[in-house]
Amino acid sequence: MGKGPLMTSKFKYLAPALAALALAGCATMSGGGHKPLAAADYAPILADAGRSDADKKDDAARKPAEVLGFAEVRPGETVLEMEVGRGWMTDILSKAVGPTGKVITQNPPEFTYSGPALATRRAAGRLPNVTETTSHFDELKVPDHSVDRVLWMLGPHELFFKPPPSNASLGDPAKTFAEIRRVLKPGGTLVIMDHAANAGAPATIAQTLHRVDPAIVEKLASDAGFKIVARSTVLANPSDDRTVAVFNNTIRRHTDQFLWRLKAK
Questions:
Q1: pTM value?
Q2: What angle do the packed helices 53-62 and 64-71 form, to 10 degrees?
Q3: How many CB atoms are closer than 10 A to CB 45?
Q4: Residue 91 near residue 56 (C-beta atoms within 8 A)
Q5: 203: pLDDT confidence band, cut at 50, 70 and 90?
Q6: How far is the C-alpha of 99 from the C-alpha of 104, rounded, in Å?
Q7: At 16, phi and psi to the nearest 5?
Q8: What does 147-178 look like in DSSP terms, one character per residue?
Q9: Residue 211: count of CB within 10 angstroms of its CB
């Protein structure tokens, strides 16, 4: 049968609607059915005019598209972001999971700068799908098996850092990884990134250099029932000798960093 003018006209208006329905169907599949975002998918998110100049300035060194592409974040997922700091990554994640997704942030109460920083973002109309929590790392305020993905960026060394003036622990290392296992859904993913210390360096080096020997983190994760399924060198820097504090201007934003994706064994 040939296409008459009326049929052609109807198709003209039906096509966008059908496309919208198809996209809506994809969005409802959440982490179980929607494809993970690739690095290229982050280009429009990073170019968003609503992002601050300060945030955009950090992109070159922190490589968010590559990092989150490796993390395999999907639209519609529930993501727990541990130790979010000022919310640079939170802002990107909020857009990445989309309106059907959710981001839960976690910060220790000692990180008093985080709340005001996130409030500033909200005042600018950002983070509509973000829920904030405050807790130590070993007592996450998240229900059991409710999270598709946990991201802990530049954070595990904090388990061995005792901030002044209290000099109190921010969380028991073993209990922290058990908590992460508790909140993840079956088949969920843990993504870890941190500043690398030299092999054999004691955990206490976190107090001065804010680094950690990757082997320490791998053992903690393994003991909690996780295995590394992928490693990325996107933030590796062989010229970093790992002996300088990460805030030193000679290495700041360019430390040798390890990035892993882990699953329950």
A1: 0.87
A2: 70
A3: 18
A4: no
A5: very high
A6: 14
A7: -60, -35
A8: EEEEEEES-GGGGG---TTTT--S--HHHHHH
A9: 25
3-class secondary structure for 31-47?
A: HHHCCCCCHHHHHHHHC
Q: With pLDDT > 90 as the criterion, what percentage of the chain qualifies? A: 86
Distances (CA, A) of 17 to 8, 12, 14, 75: 15, 10, 5, 21
d(CA 141, CA 89) in angstroms, rounded, equals: 20
CB 75 within 8 A of CB 100: yes
Look at the alpha carbons of 199, 225, 72, 92 in this order and tell me if their dihedral is positive or negative.
negative
Chain centroid to Cα 262, Å, comes to 13
| Higher per-residue confidence, 102 vs 12 | 102
**Integer distance in angstroms from the first to the last C-alpha of the chain?**
57
User: Helix or strand or coil: residue 228?
Assistant: strand
In order of their start, the domains of the chain are 34-264 (3.40.50.150)
Give how far Cα 133 sits from Cα of 107, 108, 202, Å: 7, 9, 31
Between the alpha carbon of residue 95 and those of residues 49, 100, 227, the distances in Å are: 13, 10, 29
